[in-house]
Amino acid sequence: MALNPEVNRTARTHPPHATYRVQFQSGFTFDDAANIAGYLADLGVTHLYSSPYLQAVPGSAHGYDVIDHARVNEELGGADGHTRLCFTLARHGIGQILDVVPNHMAIAGRGNAWWWDVLENGPSSPYASYFDVDWDPPESRLRNTVLLPVLGEHYGCALEEGLVRLAREGAIFTITYHDQAFPIAPSSLDELLGVASARARSDVLVFIADALGRLPLSTATDWLSVQRRHRDKEVLRGLLERLLREDAEVAAVIDKVVDEMNASADALDTLLERQNYRLAFWRTAGRELGYRRFFDINTLVGLHTEDDRVFAATHALVLRWLGDGMLDGLRIDHPDGLRDPEHYFRRLHDASPTAWVVAEKILEPGERLRESWMVSGTTGYDFLNRVGGLFIDPESEKPLTRFYAGFTGEPPDFAGVARQKKHLVMRDVLGSDVNRLTALFLEVCERHRRHRDYTRHELHEVLREVIAHFGVYRTYVRAEAGEVHPDDVRHISEAIDAAKTARPDLDAALFDFFQDLLLLRLRGGVETELVMRFQQLTGPVMAKGVEDTAFYCFNRLVALNEVGGDPARFGVSVEEFHRECAEGQARWPRTMLATSTHDTKRGEDVRARLSLLTEIPERWAEAIERWAGINEPHRRGDWPDRNAEYLLYQTLVGAWPIAPDRVLAYMQKAAREAKVHTSWTDPRPTYEDALQGFIADALADGRFVDELDRFVAPLVEPGRITSLAQTLVKLTAPGVPDLYQGTELWSLTLVDPDNRAPVDYALRRRLLDELEDTTPEDVWRRIDEGLPKLWVIRQALALRRRRPDPFGPRGDYRPLEARGARGKHAVAFIRGEATVTIVPRLVLGLAGHWGDTAIELPTGRWRNELTGDIVDGGLTSLADLLRRFPVALLAKDDPAA
Closest Cα partner for 147 from 265, 272, 247? Predict the structure, then answer.
C-alpha cells in the first residue's frame, strides 16, 4: 500500500541524517515503535532503523530467521500494524531503514512453504533451486536427499523408542518428532493407501494409491516432469481429501494402518527410507550436512540469491515498500555469505536507485570497502573500532600484556590464538562445510593430471591451513566474470605464503596450484565452483573462530575484542583517526557510524570505562592480585581458570553495578563461546557449576564487593566523559550516526541478550522534555540520570538538521591541532569550515587540567551548542572552552540564519 502523496512527501527524508535502531520482537511491536515516533523526532532522529520484520519463526527474538518474504511478521502487528507505524512515522517526518536478510532463511516446520515443498518433493520441487543444497554430495547414500540433523539421539533409537511417528490430518500425512513435523513424499504413500484400499474395498482409494505410485520421480527435474508431478499430486490430494470427508469408514481404516505402522519400527523405517530427507542425530551436522548454513546454525539454510527468481521472490515486498515511500533504505545483513555480493548490490541498486543502502561488511584493520559496490557504506563496525581506539593508551600495552600472560598463563599472541581457534571451528563446528569443499577440490585435481595423485587428506589440510591464515573475512573474486581485484591477489597471496611456512610437511606445489585456482590462472566449470564456494566459507570460519571463540579466549583488554576489531591493535593514534575520517569523507560520506549494535560484545559505555584501565596498568594489576587473593576460598579446585576469572573482573569493572543474574548469564555464555572447558554443543556441568558458584560467592563476599566499589568509583565520571567524547565524535564525523536503542542514556550492557532488554521510553521522554530551558550546569548535576549524554545527542542532532551541509558529502573534514603540554589529550576537527568538534581523550591522565593547551579556531564568531557561549576565532584556550561542559560543539555564525 502506498502512502498518500502528502504523507509521502513528508516521509521521504532521504538521505538520513541520524538513525535509531530498534529491535522488534513480541515485547516491542509496531505499535510500540509508533508510540516513540514523537520522542525520536524531538531527539533529532530522521530515520527509524528497524530490525528484520518479515514473517519469522514464531517467537523469534531478532527476526533474522525469516520464513516468508511475502508477509509482515504477525507477532509484531502484521500488515495493519506495519501500516499504522509507517503513517505515524511519516506524520512526524521520520523515514525508515529496514534490515533485510538475503543470505538465508529459517527452515522450521510448515511456516517456510518453499522448504516444506523441497522436503516433500526433493530435487523435483520448483523451489529446489532456491536453496543452496548439494544434491550430489560425496556420500552416495545422501544423493538427492537432504540430511536433517534434528534428532536428540541416534536415528534407530528415536525410531525404536516411538519418538518418530506417522501422523495424519485430513489428506495430509506427516512425520513428527516431538514438536517438529516433516512432510511425506506423495509417491511414498502408495503402499500405505494400497493396504488400506484392500481392507476398505474402496475403488477410489485403489486408484489414488496406484496413481501416487506412478508420479514422476522426485529426482526428475525437467520442467514437464515437475509440472506434471505438482499437478497430479494436488489432484490426488484433493480426491483423497474428499473421500476421507465423505467416507468415515475409509478414514478409520487408514488411521488403523497408520497406528500399525507406528507400532512397527521396521515399517516406519521403510517409509522414511523413501523420503527426500534423512532424519539424523544432530551431531552429524558437524561432518555430513549437505546444505550451506548461516555459520553453524542448522535451521538457517543458505539461499541462491544470485538466481533471478530467488532475488525477485525474496525482495518483492521490500522493493515495493521502497517504491511506495514506506522505506528510504536498507541494511543488508551478512553480504559476505552471498555468492557474488557486488552483483547483488548492483541488482539492488538497479531495482531501487535512490535507496540508501549500507552493508554489514566487517572490515579488518587496513581493509577497504570495495568501491565497485553500489552502497553508501558499511554498518559502522569499522568506525566503532576506530573511535574506540582513540581512548586506548598505547603506552600500557607492554605492562598489561606482561601481567595478563603472568596471571592467566595464556599466550599473549592474538594472531596465534585466532589461527588455533579457526582450526578448532573447522574441525568441530564447520566440518561438513570443509568436507564439501574438499570433495570439490578433489574433483578439480582429478581434472589436472599433475595433481590427481594428491590424497583427500592432503587437500583437506591445505584448505584448512589457507583458511586459518586468511587475514580478512573473504575475497571477492568474480570467477564467472573473470575478475580479480588487486586486493584479492594480495589477500590470497599472503594467506598462501603464510600457510606454506606453517606447514612445510605439505607439498608447496599443491599450495601453488590452489593459489593459481583462486586467482583464476586455471579456469573451468568445477574450478569456478571451488573458488566461489571457498569465498563463502572463509567468512563463517572467521566469524566463528575469531569473533565467537578467540574473542572469548584472549582477554588481555576486552574493550578491544569487538566485531571488526583486532585485539592485537592497541589503540588508534589521533593522526591515524583523522586520516581515516578524511578518507571516509572522500569515499563514503554517507556510511553508517555506530558505537553499539545488537551484535556488539559489550556496550559503548562499558568499553569507554574499560579503556581507562590502559591509563592505570599498575593500579589494575595490583587490584587483580588483591581480588584473586580475596576470592581464592571461593574456587572449586583449579576452577574457574584464571583466564575466565580475569574476564570476570573486567566485566564487573566495566558494567558495575550489575545484578548477579546478568553476570552469571554473561559468564556462562562467554565460557561456552570460548570452547575451552565447556561449549554450546558439549556443556560441562562440572566446570559451569564451579564457575557459577565462584561468581555467586564472590558477589556475596562483602570484602570483595567493597574493594570493587572503591576501585570503580573513581572511574565512573571519567568513563562517562569518555562516552560523551565518543558520542559527540560519532555525531559529527563523516557519515550517518546511528543510536542503538536505549543508549541515549548511560547503558552498561553486555553481549546479547543482555543488550536487547526492554527500554524505558517513558523515562527518556520525560528527561528529554526536562532539557528545555536548562543550563549545562543543571545537566551536569544530573549526571547519574544520564542527562549529559541525552543533551549532547539532542544538541548535536538539532545542529545537523538545522545545518546539514557541513555534515554531508560536500562538507569537508579537516583536523585541528591542539597546542600545548596536554595537546595529546585533545581530538578536534572542523566540518565544512562551519562546525568544530572538540573532545578529550585519556581523561584520567588529563584529570581536567588543560593548562596552556589551546586550539586555533578559524576567524569568525562561534557558538558552543552545548553551553551557549560565544567565542571568537583565533587561538582559544581549551580550559575556557571546556570549563562548563567536558566536550564542545561549535557552530559558526550563519549570516543567513
Answer: 272
C-alpha cell at 517: 585456482
Average pLDDT over residues 668-687: 97
CA 547/CA 563 separation, integer angstroms: 6
User: Side-chain half-sphere of 481: how many Cα atoms within 13 Å?
Assistant: 10
Cell numbers of 309, please? 527468481
| Amino acid letter, 514 | F
**Bridge partners for 20 per DSSP:** 48, 739
Handedness of CA 421, 422, 426, 430 (dihedral sign): positive
Report residue 87: phi and psi, to 5°: -65, -40
pLDDT tops 80 at residue 217? no
> Using one digit for the tens of pLDDT, what is the confidence trace for 389-432?
999 999 999 999 999 999 999 999 999 999 999 999 999 999 99
Round to whole Å and give the CA distance between 57 and 64.
Answer: 9
Residues 6+ apart with CB under 8 A from 27: 758
Condensed to tens digits (0 to 9), the pLDDT of residues 99-116 reads: 999 999 999 888 999 999
pTM of the full predicted structure? 0.95
Can you read off the three cell numbers belonging to residue 663? Answer: 553476570
pLDDT tens for each residue of 183-206: 999 889 999 999 999 998 888 888
Q: How many CB atoms lie within 10 A of CB 327?
A: 25
Residue 90 burial class via C-beta count within 10 angstroms: exposed 0-12, middle 13-18, buried 19 and up: buried
The answer to whether the beta carbons of residues 153 and 160 sit under 8 Å apart is: no
Q: Given pLDDT bands bounded at 50, 70 and 90, which one contains residue 210?
A: confident
What's the pLDDT score for residue 5? 34
Distance between CA atoms of residues 438 and 375, nearest Å: 34
Phi-psi region of 868 (alpha: psi -120 to 50; beta: other; left: phi over 0): left
Residue 234, pLDDT score? 81
User: CA nearest 488: which of 503, 473, 506, 475?
Assistant: 475
Pair type for strands 736-740 and 592-593: parallel
Task: Kindly state the average pLDDT of the residues 667-691.
Answer: 97
CA–CA distance, 336 with 474 (Å, rounded to integer)? 7
How are beta strands 854-864 and 888-892 bridged, if at all?
antiparallel
**Helix/strand/coil for 32:** helix
Cα gap 448→582, rounded to integer Å:
49
Are 568 and 414 contacting, i.e. CB atoms less than 8 angstroms apart?
Answer: yes
Nine cell digits for residue 701: 563476599
Residue 851 C-alpha cell reads as 593548562
pLDDT in tens, 446-476: 999 999 999 999 999 999 999 999 999 999 9
All 3 cell numbers of residue 839? 573532545
Q: From residue 364, how far is each of 88, 389, 404, 565, 579 by CA, in Å?
A: 39, 14, 24, 7, 17
Cis amide linkage into residue 567, ω under 30° from 0: no
Of the CA atoms within 13 Å of residue 422, those in its CB half-sphere come to: 26
> In Å, how far are 41, 697, 766 from 848, measured between CA atoms?
34, 38, 31
